[in-house]
Design brief:
Layout: H1 3-17, E1 20-23, H2 28-41, E2 45-51, H3 57-70, E3 74-78, H4 85-88, H5 94-113, E4 118-119, H6 132-139, H7 145-149, H8 153-162, H9 188-203, E5 210-214, E6 217-221, H10 224-233, H11 236-246, E7 250-253, H12 269-272
Parallel strand pairs: 1-2, 1-4, 2-3, 6-7
Antiparallel strand pairs: 5-6
Helix pairs in contact: 1-2, 2-3, 5-6, 9-11
Length: 276
């Protein structure tokens, strides 16, 4: 199926739905879904963003701006995954409990507002990664049009650019809980510490990055080609001082560089094979 055919199929899916509530994080995937849904359904499409301590405040602001640019109605709800010890204990299937909370919030909201479908931004590539949250969404009847049509992450960006969405190249920004090694307890204070550290680095002009947190240590991950420039041009003692003010004791730089899903490398092969 060509990219144009995939776009037409996505439009047809929303036309068949007639009304849809979009689980909208503000990331490039769910924003493309929101754009196509609004183009087809107009005000019969609703974007809903879930807010919790694991969402960076700047990501929420981006989501608001993007929704307003598209024109789609936008609503914000609170989720309470931090109240669930199955989530905060940070097991390898943590994302299952996160998405369970999300869709247990969105599904009754959709029913109350008269939306027969809850739609998310899962793409075809996500089906080949370790994503336990996908199972939670499926169990609650959510649909994933991008995955249904076979739209890859690269095609998400290409379609976004074709549709003149200015954030088509926005870096991936998973929830802040993904910054912690499995088994380390997640707290609001730890999430805020990591969030403040990443915002600090972005204000230095860095975009595609992660601050991984393990105990009192912060590990900065940057694209490999940016590591040398970072070391030579950034005031490293100032970075250390800022991170220590945020609550870290030790600050390190990952010499391998940024790699999405890096913390999954500790999982056993059987866990990584749990594809949905």
């Amino acid at each position: 199926m060509t990219q144009k055919e995939k776009l037409e199929r996505l439009k047809a899916i929303f036309a068949e739905m007639e009304q849809a509530l979009i689980a909208y994080s503000g990331g490039v995937d769910s924003t493309l879904v929101a754009k196509i849904a609004y183009d087809v359904l107009g005000d019969r499409a609703l974007a809903v963003t879930a807010v919790s301590p694991s969402l960076l405040p700047e990501e929420l602001e981006d989501a608001k701006i993007q929704a307003a640019t598209i024109g789609i109605p936008h609503q914000i709800v609170q989720t309470n995954e931090m109240d669930n010890p199955n989530y905060t204990s940070n097991p390898v299937n943590r994302c299952y409990f996160c998405k369970s909370e999300l869709h247990d919030t969105l599904k009754p909201l959709a029913r109350e507002l008269g939306y027969p479908y809850v739609v998310d931004g899962v793409n075809a590539d996500d089906l080949h990664d370790y994503r336990p949250g996908i199972q939670a969404a499926k169990e609650r009847g959510a649909r994933s049009p991008l995955a249904e049509v076979g739209v890859s992450k690269m095609e998400v960006r290409q379609l976004s650019q074709e549709l003149s969405l200015p954030w088509w190249d926005k870096p991936a920004q998973p929830c802040l809980s993904s910054r912690f090694p499995y088994g380390e307890e997640i707290t609001v204070a730890k999430l805020q510490r990591v969030g403040r550290a990443e915002i600090y680095l972005r204000k230095l002009g860095l975009k595609n990055l992660r601050v991984r947190s393990e105990g009192d240590t912060a590990r900065i991950e940057l694209p490999p080609e940016q590591i040398k420039e970072f070391v030579l041009t950034i005031d490293l003692p100032q970075v250390v001082s800022a991170f220590q003010e945020f609550g870290f004791i030790y600050v390190t730089l990952d010499l391998e560089g940024y790699r999405s899903g890096k913390l999954n490398q500790v999982l056993q092969p059987q866990a990584l094979s749990l594809k949905i």
